[in-house]
Amino acid sequence: MSTTDNKTPERQLLLGAFIPSAGIMGASWRHASAAPDSFSDFGHFQWIAQTLEAARFHAVFFNDTVNVDADLEVLERGPNSVRWDPLVLLPALAMVTRHIGLIGTASTTYNDPYNIARKLANIDHLSGGRVGWNLVTSLGGGENFNLDAHVLHADRYERAEEFYDVVTGLWDSYEHGAFVQDKASGRFLDTAKLHVLNHHGKHFQVRGPLNAPRPLQGYPVIAQAGSSDSGRALAARAGELIFTAQHTIEQGQAFYRQIKAQAAKLGRHPEHLKILPGVSPVVGKTQAEAQARYDQLQQLLEPKTFLRSISRFASLGFDLSELPFDEVVPLPPEQFDTNTHKSRQKLVFDLIRRERPTVRELFNKLTAGGHRILIGTPQSIADDLQGWFEAGAADGFNVMFSGLHEGIAAFASGVVPELQRRGLFRREYQGATLRENLGLPYIANRKATGSAA
Ligand SMILES: Cc1cc2nc3c(=O)[nH]c(=O)nc-3n(C[C@H](O)[C@H](O)[C@H](O)COP(=O)(O)O)c2cc1C
Predict the structure, then answer these.
(1) Is the beta carbon of 151 within 6 A of some atom in ligand 1?
(2) CATH architecture label of 14-290+371-438
(3) Average pLDDT of 222-234?
(4) Which one, out of 72, 101, 240, 280, has a CA that is 20 to 30 A from the CA of 273?
């Protein structure tokens, strides 16, 4: 990546922020400092995006689901019943920020490609080229889309592959310079630079062209977070920012090498995929202060409901909440399959086999949904991030914030300056678009025949 500061090393780490689209995660809404109505108040999201922009984060990222947990006790205890549609939130955030990237999740299983291509193209223009799309196949939701059950994993990924082709094909509808707008002659569009898609596939029939100008970035940045074999195949082909959950540095290195090698086999430049494992930081001026903060948050979380919910999320096949809190978790079966989150199931099974934790220990490790929890000072957290970055286990991190302002402020004012002091993180935005800031190339129009795409 190019930098403007010649004292900094060539390669610097990327920081994205995972912000729950429900505004706040887990039991953090009960914390004394939690903003009231953080699930519905736009001002809450505005504060977060502006604070992270001041800290020079590359992007804020919003997750999404299209269904609500059926477990009423889970709904009773946490903000899991409501969340913003990221594609509604992003345009509003585009109006109150200038540099930070805006990445939203949209499902390929429960949307149509034309609508998604159009909305993202519009938001890319609204934001001056700062939008990204987290392409997911969703963890559930069939019941809300005329189906009896969630679409099968293999079918979801088959549809996702074709969905991506249609969306990107639609983004290539107009070549650069197509809109001549010649007032004298009355010619608005040069139809020689218009490309009709005419897609006839297994899942979609889409004629095109798109009724939106080509995105400013060519294509918005594509983020991908599936880690099963099919998820990795899609990431290697289409992903540019790869979100992942990895627990040990060795697992992180193996994932990093494998995805980049798989992409290289498809003719892609390995540096055009950026691997961002998730980390959930709890920052204190001292280790004891950070630990006290974490313990306080844990005390707000009702263990039984949480354990039941995480058992389901990670498809464990057994319910952790039914086991005694201080007993060692039994070994999971060698083979157990799931139709939802294959990679998270594997991650938790591996953790149980490797560490043989008690239920209590697992409870304390899984509160970030299985992502690593870093409890420490700005220095110790920077040491950890630096270690992973320099060992080739990450290009940067997807920093998973609970939504509490104090946690975001502590990271922005403590860890970010520490990373900057070490020359590991930039002090200024270096480009105008999200692609430029991430060191990713502009995507030229594949249909263009002329010199300028
Ligand atoms: C950081 C991160 C964020 C994710 N965000 C979402 C999300 O917002 N919505 C969703 O349905 N899945 C989300 N996922 C899950 C994946 O996109 C994917 O659906 C899941 O990993 C199941 O696919 P797999 O079996 O290929 O791993 C996320 C995963 C990670 C690691």
Answers:
(1) no
(2) Alpha-Beta Barrel (3.20)
(3) 92
(4) 280
